[in-house]
Design brief:
Number of strands: 6
Number of domains: 2
EC number: 3.4.16.4
Oligomer: single chain
Shape: globular
Domain D-alanyl-D-alanine carboxypeptidase-like core: 112-241
Structural class: alpha+beta
Bound molecules: zinc ion
Helix content: 40-55%
CATH architecture of the largest domain: 2-Layer Sandwich
GO molecular function: serine-type D-Ala-D-Ala carboxypeptidase activity
Enzyme class: hydrolase
InterPro entries: DD-CPase-like, VanY-like_core_dom, VanY/YodJ_core_dom, Zn_M74/Hedgehog-like
Strand content: 5-15%
CATH topology of the largest domain: Muramoyl-pentapeptide Carboxypeptidase, domain 2
């Protein structure tokens, strides 16, 4: 009996020891977990700090170059293309949707979408009556053609002894990244040979007054450079249809702004 009692006591004390040890282990683990969590939190904070300082650099860079550099924001996810093909938005943040169907024909010595051919011809004929000669120097450009132009531009910068990364970023400022130029839509035309001073010509003045009557808009206006992220291009016109072109002109909106406005109005009317 005594032996049994003794054994029982022994077992109890052994259990107590195990219990205490377990409690100690648990406490130690808790300390470690807290410590690890703190390290983790510190690491996250450090990462966040690094991130915010690098995006500040990007912002500063953007300010330095006038906001022309491309942004890799996730805008594509929230953005909805308008339900009107004439308003399809292609820019540095939005590539041409894969479902978009262009209808390319060879006309006026270039490739363009057949659906804008009549409107362009009417505009060209009306201009000619006012002694204004318009001609298309560039229309539709395929993805492959854009890729070629882009890599030629990179090579040109690369030769000047700058880093590849810098060459790519410089090239992106003068030539759109492949898939990001709206020439891929077939709805854009460069007029009269891409002249830097085209904005000072009587042809440009005529277009400013009449292009919207034929469904065309100046796609990259001088006062919208921060929105389009493309420098002023007086020669580049985009077909959007007469009613949209007239509204854009009246509201002084570039396509980015107008698409946003259009989508909001569409959503409100449904
Ligand atoms: Zn162009």
């Amino acid at each position: 009996m005594y032996q049994e009692k003794h054994r029982f006591k022994k077992t109890l004390s052994a259990l107590a020891v195990i219990f205490v040890e377990l409690a100690l282990m648990a406490a130690t683990t808790a300390v470690f977990v807290v410590a690890f969590e703190r390290v983790d939190a510190m690491r996250l904070a450090a990462a966040a700090a690094a991130k915010s300082s690098s995006s500040e650099v990007i912002t500063q860079e953007k300010l330095d170059d006038g906001g022309f550099s491309s942004s890799s924001s996730g805008a594509t996810q929230e953005f909805k293309q308008p339900d009107d093909w004439r308003l399809v938005l292609v820019n540095l943040d939005h590539e041409l949707p894969q479902t978009y169907k262009a209808n390319i024909v060879h006309k006026f010595n270039v490739d363009i979408d057949s659906r804008i051919a009549d409107s362009y011809q009417q505009m060209r004929d009306a201009a000619l009556k006012d002694n204004i000669k318009l001609w298309i120097s560039s229309g539709y450009r395929s993805y492959e053609k854009q890729r070629q132009l882009f890599s030629e531009e990179i090579q040109a910068f690369y030769k000047n002894g700058i880093s590849r990364e810098e060459a790519v970023s410089k090239a992106a400022r003068s030539v759109a990244r492949p898939g990001c130029s709206e020439h891929i839509t077939g709805l854009a035309v460069d007029l009269n040979g891409v002249l830097e001073n085209f904005g000072d010509t009587k042809e440009f003045t005529w277009l400013q007054q009449h292009a919207q009557d034929y469904g065309f808009v100046l796609r990259y206006p001088k006062d919208k450079q921060h929105t389009t992220k493309i420098k002023f291009e007086p020669w580049h016109y985009r077909y959007v249809g007469v009613e949209h072109a007239k509204k854009m002109k009246a509201l002084n909106m570039c396509l980015e702004e107008y698409v946003d406005y259009y989508n909001k109005n569409q959503a409100a009317s449904h």
